[in-house]
């Protein structure tokens, strides 16, 4: 995997470094000996069918899930550290998930939802909001094209609008990487178009994108590396052009698939 890192970044600790990570929830193994290295600022898609373990991987990165110990043979590092607090994590990584979007289905204004990202809370309580925080929130709200929504309650938004609000919330700390779990679930064609444009703008400004998805068409042209996940393990990892092939997609999803590339976008047909 290190061969895929830019040469100038090889002397910098990886953003993520997992080796032989296994996670068990109850009686179920949700990750099975996963090894992964992702460089700071790298754009990566983790592609696999539903139930492959993608969301469990995101929860492990976010420290919602913890790997089982295997006698010192596993590695679980972020930016070279095995132990770090939530403030370090927020500076490195912004995360948007469907669980988070559900948590924000409540009657609070969009601007407050964005500002709450400064405190890892669902809303503002006794938090001290600084002018700098307000300025950054307003800047992101404008950048993501949701200024007209700033005063509206989250419950009044469409799925696509709420997704952009949560991206703004995730970016208030200017993280080096934005992680998205199944980002286009429930989006119609118009919302999908706006969301893709949003992600491309974020990537072009230098923020790394790590995306877990089951849709080829979610993979924006700026993503150069694709990891295939099936049965809670990684089954392939490489450059996008080498991974998104008919044979590999057929093996991954278990159906006849024809992969078509158009202007940097990939689509699956024939199933």
Mean pLDDT equals 90
CATH C-level class: Alpha Beta
Number of helices: 9
Q: What fraction, in percent, of the residue positions are helical?
A: 25-40%
**Gyration radius, to the nearest Å?**
19 Å
Describe the protein in words:
With 271 residues, the chain is of the alpha/beta class. The chain has a single domain, classed as 3-Layer(aba) Sandwich (Rossmann fold). It is built from 9 helices and 11 strands. The chain has helices at residues 54-61, 86-92, 98-103, 110-115, 131-143, 159-170, 189-204, 240-243, 246-253, and strands at residues 16-25, 28-38, 44-47, 75-78, 93-96, 177-181, 208-213, 225-230, 233-239, 258-262, 265-269. It has a 6-stranded mixed sheet with strand order 5-6-7-3-8-9, sandwiched between helices. A 3-stranded antiparallel sheet has the order 2-1-4, with helices on one face. β1 (16-25) and β2 (28-38) form a beta hairpin. α6 runs parallel beside α7 (189-204). The protein is globular and about 50 Å long. Residues 5-9 have low confidence and may be disordered.
Task: Draw up the topology in text.
Elements: E1 16-25, E2 28-38, E3 44-47, H1 54-61, E4 75-78, H2 86-92, E5 93-96, H3 98-103, H4 110-115, H5 131-143, H6 159-170, E6 177-181, H7 189-204, E7 208-213, E8 225-230, E9 233-239, H8 240-243, H9 246-253, E10 258-262, E11 265-269
Parallel strand pairs: 3-7, 3-8, 5-6, 6-7
Antiparallel strand pairs: 1-2, 1-4, 8-9, 10-11
Helix pairs in contact: 6-7
């Amino acid at each position: 995997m290190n061969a895929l890192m830019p040469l100038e970044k090889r002397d910098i600790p990886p953003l993520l470094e997992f080796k032989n990570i296994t996670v068990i929830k109850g009686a179920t193994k949700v990750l099975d000996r996963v090894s992964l290295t992702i460089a700071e600022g790298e754009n990566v898609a983790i592609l696999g069918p539903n139930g492959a373990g993608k969301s469990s991987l995101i929860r492990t990165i976010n420290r919602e899930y913890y790997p089982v110990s295997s006698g010192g043979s596993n590695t679980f590092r972020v930016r070279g550290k095995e132990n770090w607090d939530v403030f370090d994590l927020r500076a490195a990584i912004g995360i948007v998930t469907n669980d988070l979007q559900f948590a924000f289905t409540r009657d609070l204004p969009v601007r407050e939802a964005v500002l709450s990202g400064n405190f890892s809370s669902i809303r503002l309580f006794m938090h001290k909001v600084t002018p700098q925080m307000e300025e950054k929130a307003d800047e992101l709200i404008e950048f993501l094209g949701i200024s007209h929504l700033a005063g509206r309650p989250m419950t009044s938004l469409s799925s696509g609008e709420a997704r952009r609000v949560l991206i703004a919330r995730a970016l208030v700390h200017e993280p080096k990487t934005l992680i998205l779990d199944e980002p286009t679930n429930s989006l119609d064609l118009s919302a999908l178009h706006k969301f893709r444009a949003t992600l491309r703008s974020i990537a072009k400004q230098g923020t790394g994108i790590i995306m877990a998805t089951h849709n080829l068409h979610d993979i924006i042209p700026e993503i150069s590396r694709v990891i295939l996940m099936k049965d809670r393990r990684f089954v392939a990892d490489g450059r996008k052009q080498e991974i998104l092939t008919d044979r590999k997609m057929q093996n991954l999803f278990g159906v006849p698939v024809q992969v078509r590339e158009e202007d940097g976008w990939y689509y699956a047909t024939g199933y």
